[in-house]
Amino acid sequence: MMRTRPLKVALLGCGVVGSEVARIMTTHADDLAARIGAPVELAGVAVRRPDKVREGIAAELITTDATALVKRGDIDVVVEVIGGVEPARTLIRTAFEHGASVVSANKALLAQDGAGLYAAAEEHGKDLYYEAAVAGAIPLIRPLRESLAGDKINRVMGIVNGTTNFILDKMDTTGAGYQEALDEATALGYAEADPTADVEGYDAAAKAAILAGIAFHTRVRLDDVYREGMTEVTAADFASAKRMGCTIKLLAICERAADGESVTARVHPAMIPLSHPLASVREAYNAVFVEAEAAGRLMFYGPGAGGSPTASAVLGDLVAVCRNRLNEATGPGESAYTQLPVSPMGEVVTRYHISLDVADKPGVLAQVATVFAEHGVSIDTVRQQGKDGEASLVVVTHRAPDAALSGTVEALRKLDTVRGVASIMRVEGE
Amino acid sequence: MMRTRPLKVALLGCGVVGSEVARIMTTHADDLAARIGAPVELAGVAVRRPDKVREGIAAELITTDATALVKRGDIDVVVEVIGGVEPARTLIRTAFEHGASVVSANKALLAQDGAGLYAAAEEHGKDLYYEAAVAGAIPLIRPLRESLAGDKINRVMGIVNGTTNFILDKMDTTGAGYQEALDEATALGYAEADPTADVEGYDAAAKAAILAGIAFHTRVRLDDVYREGMTEVTAADFASAKRMGCTIKLLAICERAADGESVTARVHPAMIPLSHPLASVREAYNAVFVEAEAAGRLMFYGPGAGGSPTASAVLGDLVAVCRNRLNEATGPGESAYTQLPVSPMGEVVTRYHISLDVADKPGVLAQVATVFAEHGVSIDTVRQQGKDGEASLVVVTHRAPDAALSGTVEALRKLDTVRGVASIMRVEGE
Ligand SMILES: NC(=O)c1ccc[n+]([C@@H]2O[C@H](COP(=O)([O-])OP(=O)(O)OC[C@H]3O[C@@H](n4cnc5c(N)ncnc54)[C@H](OP(=O)(O)O)[C@@H]3O)[C@@H](O)[C@H]2O)c1
Ligand SMILES: NC(=O)c1ccc[n+]([C@@H]2O[C@H](COP(=O)([O-])OP(=O)(O)OC[C@H]3O[C@@H](n4cnc5c(N)ncnc54)[C@H](OP(=O)(O)O)[C@@H]3O)[C@@H](O)[C@H]2O)c1
Predict the structure, then answer these.
(1) Which one of the ligands is nearest to A90 CA?
(2) Shared domain check, B391 and B267
(3) Which of the residues B107, B170, B207, B249 is marked catalytic?
């Protein structure tokens, strides 16, 4: 059965992920060969700094000329773990043009131009796999694309950023504020020096775009994803959440509208009940909850990042792509046949938890309730607390369009008796 | 892109699962066609009772002659959802011989003769897929076989039987005894009239054999799986578990030995810490926890049974097999290249929680401790409770070979001062 000519792999990037890919390819070469049906050989490794010591990688494999490597013509699979849009995109396109299939871990690029890359792969009859781009080691893209291919997915809701989950978990368990928890995450290496991409939700938004596209067989661009970061979540919000039997998570939520005619994708902090499977996802773990018509409620849980977990996902793809090559076949390409429109955030139907500082005098609740009613938003519960002429009002609504909810908040701000809106948070997961 | 000649599917069995497969194939025909690249047509449905009303299925498709259906020669894919070993096995072999690929949900058959069926599939260049055979709707077989194909799996530990999880969850949350919880499960349709296959662990053992084979790329026969049911778990065991910060689950555990040279597979009730992700799997849900060298700790969660969840898994396989057919390719076949021996239960390294009724007199603890020491089993904690000349001793051990642990228990039974061994339970998941 075993073919003796090895399949040649070009590795673009040899950083956190790439170095682990190279290591496993070397140490587990026999296993990979047995699973693929042919040996795989590391044919070249492109990096920026050629002089850096790269343990276990023969010096003659290292090059700074990634373009020449992918143009060699004898490369079977290009593994792109450089990151960022360029030069990664051009390198991947060049790889297809020169006969290679591609495995990538690049969420930024996939979210930005997945459609263009799929089209290039298809034009050249090559594979494009990217399991590692979303939720690191967790098998998610393949289950969504293949295991659930006979089902109809209605919702994907996930914790897809480990850094922010680590921060929120710390805030939840220790009562720390945002900055303190962020400092700890940075000290422990969970947050980068510039944490913007994580804490402002950009990373999660890229993943939401990818997941929504796959789940609903449509195209969702990065710009279609509503995004709110988690830098304004406070210890007080966690205290409110606890009183409701909830915790707070930064969620990526992709939903099919009730009528099935449109979809939405969004990233924002939200309260979820402690009984929800996502509530117990601790530290930097990721988890994605999927609701499908026939399958019901599924959850996928695991490490969302890190060199070796991400390399595991890359290598799973590498095995599949190599097998496809030996079979002279390709795996499933883009599936965007439904062409569903992506609705704006205002059309999302959700619930709000609103905390108001109000004047402590009679009639305030009636005034506030009137504003909700005028916007067609029905109130689930109200909790009033007063002392020394100051009072706070915590309102939890029933489900309503986000536009009606935010319209309500705007109108509340204008009331004389409302001194301030202390916090607004969506409530999900029921 | 779309081919117009439909792919023909023969459905063997139209019960709980089969009727849902037929329903979804009809109601979601357009989606399936788009995902496959060709329409799929239900070409025939084999049942035992031809006169039963089958909603949504044209009467002329129904036949009692399953053999003739699979021999027709124009069938692309046979979906086997009859269950049991025969006639399912012969029908599947006949299907391969007559040019069809096969999707099956039959854990009993796969556990019994997976190797034989794989060989038949390979001989005829056909696919054998069976995602639905383990953990119903949860994508598990595909992630293990494909997503983790580049990784090394060291342990698979799962709740793979919904009936027993429902019973244990009831016992845990309501304090009910086994019989009472079983009665409730039966009344709600979670347990069959004869619950033996579930409560004695036979169903879970079949799944453990399948999972161990896939995870470790070796062959594990049903007889290789150690099996203990959960009918003797008592309310007192749950009380003890709670005192330890644990709950009790019926677990299927497949492990690679520390030296990597052998594997084990077993099914038994065990205490697991409440902090373990499997501890919070409620009701009839299933979940499988996977530890892989590079990926780390993953968990897959969802409904483990039921007509439509199981049909979702069957249809995911159907889409894959149909796509393979259009590509004139096949998916991965059996991977058993490691040929690792399966060690007996005695070699499993685990921990015991042992509850003893002892005489309430000085020196008993010393006597008991000596027995542990003589068997090379180190004690983690001891809790002593005495009243009115009666006393109980609860011992939790460190990790030791199961043979040493059971030898210890045997020797304890022989001590004069030990009046009885109230319960023994393994402790897992740390
Ligand atoms: N790290 C994770 O946990 C994780 C998780 C999921 C997905 N990902 C994705 O995986 C990809 C790689 O991430 P990473 O963390 O491994 O990044 P990294 O540690 O920064 O490594 C990037 C690598 O690319 C090389 N490189 C940069 N520009 C290059 C160029 N123009 N030509 C050739 N090589 C170039 C660098 O070379 P030098 O070594 O010479 O600097 C380095 O080896 C990204 O798309 C990321 O989003 C990462
Ligand atoms: N039910 C679940 O939740 C679940 C979950 C996972 C896996 N599975 C697996 O799925 C398979 C089917 O389970 P199920 O619950 O759907 O079983 P079921 O409801 O008992 O249905 C069995 C079907 O097979 C037909 N049948 C029986 N013997 C036959 C024969 N000799 N020739 C032709 N047809 C025959 C029956 O015909 P009649 O309709 O005429 O009686 C019935 O339609 C089993 O392997 C099971 O282990 C089931």
Answers:
(1) 1
(2) no
(3) B207
